[in-house]
Structures are given as C-alpha cells and as structure tokens.
Amino acid sequence: MGNKMDHLRTAIATFAVLATIAFGQAPDTLWTRTYSSDSVFVYGLAACRDGGFVLGGLKLGESSEDYDVWVMKCDANGSSVWERTFSGGGTDFCTSVAVTVNDEIVLAGYERARFQNYGDFMLLKLTPDGDSIWTRTFGGIEGDDGCNTVTSTRDGGFLVGGYAGSFEGGALIIKLDSLGQHQWSSLSVNPVGNPNVYALVEDRHGGYLWAGQDATVGYQPLIVRLTAAGDSMWGQLYAEVGSSALTAIQQSSSGKFNSGWIRNGDFRRWTCHCWYHYNPWSTKLSLVGAF
To answer: What is the pTM of this model?
Structure first.
C-alpha cells in the first residue's frame, strides 16, 4: 500500500458498466463515470439492490499516517448520491465493502490509533443513507492485524478475513452476527508461510471458503474450506502457477468454485463470462478438496 501513497496524492476512479451480448464476445459499455476527489483511494465496490453501488476506500489527511475511511453511494447511472468520511483520529481505511439484504452497508478494513505501532481489524456498519450504526474492532495486543475482505452471510451476519500479525502471523477469519458481535474465529497459523486471506464466500451447501496465499515456499495460491462453525475441513495450495495470490472466489450454479488471482503484482482475474482476462490462470474446485 505504501507504493500507492508514494506515487499518488490525488486519485481519480473511473468505472465502466458493461453488458455482454453473447457468451465469449466483448461487452458493450453502458456508461462510464469518473470521480475525482483530492487524495481519495478506492479499494472496495459492492452492488446495491436498487441497482446502484457503493465505493469504499480512504481519504488522506494532513500527514502521511493520517487516513480516514471514505465511502460513496452511487445510483444505477453512476451518479453520486452521497459521500462520507469517518475518522478514528489515526490511520483508518476501508479495504472491502459488503451490502446486506436491506441495503445496509458494511465497510471492513484497518484501524490504528495515532502514535500506536499496531493496528486492528475494523468493521463499520452504515444505514442506506450513510449514517453510522456501529463500529467494531478486533485484534491482538502486539502485532499488526488487518482486514482485507468482508462478505455478508445468509443469517444476516458477516464474515471478515485478513492477516493476524499478533497471532504469530496467521490467516484470521471472524464470523459476526448482524450487530457485529463475535460468534467464532478461525485462525490458520504458519509462522514461516504467513498465510493471508483476500477473498471469502459462503457455500450454499453449508460452510465457507477463503482464498489467499501462503509464503512458505515463495507466494503460493491457497484455498481453505471451513465448516459452518469455522473448523478447517481441507486446504489446497497451487504451487504450479508460481508466485501468486488468489484475490477472488465465487460459487457457480453447479456448486463448484471459481477463483481469480494476482501474479507477480500483475492483476488478473477469471469470471464465468470469460470476456475479460489476460492469459489468466484459473481453477475450479469441487466440494471435496485436499490438504
């Protein structure tokens, strides 16, 4: 993240909405919008039931360590409806956005108090109009803990995942209810590999999967399946693709899972439409994996 701060002080986010005419063909552009805001960086995007969407990220403050959580709601045509910033007085930013069935908004990311060495998972829930409902933080005493992803669950709660530096360097998944109260945690610890979570999905048949990376031998894509209670069922490394990290995972109508990746800093993704990819590596998993 530091490289982005070094090279950009003003961020302009451009979004295009695309429609696929037929499978395998290039999509048509419905509209394009550019949002220019001084010192804003966008990291998360989620669709709303009204056809609009929510953007989440950070807004730079007066110092290089002063970040505020930034969020914007847009309508179905991409026009801004409202914009909000939330500050804890230190380093606060959003890395992922989720929207509930009643269009409440959940921002997940990182919070570090001013003059502190370590940060925690941060979760902020908003009304559809952008007003704060509650804020939650989770983390250990010493070590940096940062949330990379959030997804809403069918029971009205949330699943968040990221890196837990305060727990010997592990991948941390936390299940929360609709009020942000802790239900269970799942920690995958590997002091050598420092596993990290970048994407989460709820399995329609029960349980969850997370995708990310493990650095025991280089950076290897990693997928782990959990039970509904957060216990590990199996995990799978994909060493054959080289230095990579899985950054997206979704479940297909057949019940299998598709995943996308970053390789050597080059963002690449795979989707079921297949019209947007650059020589990507992708994988499909059945409900049974390996560990």
So the answer is: 0.79
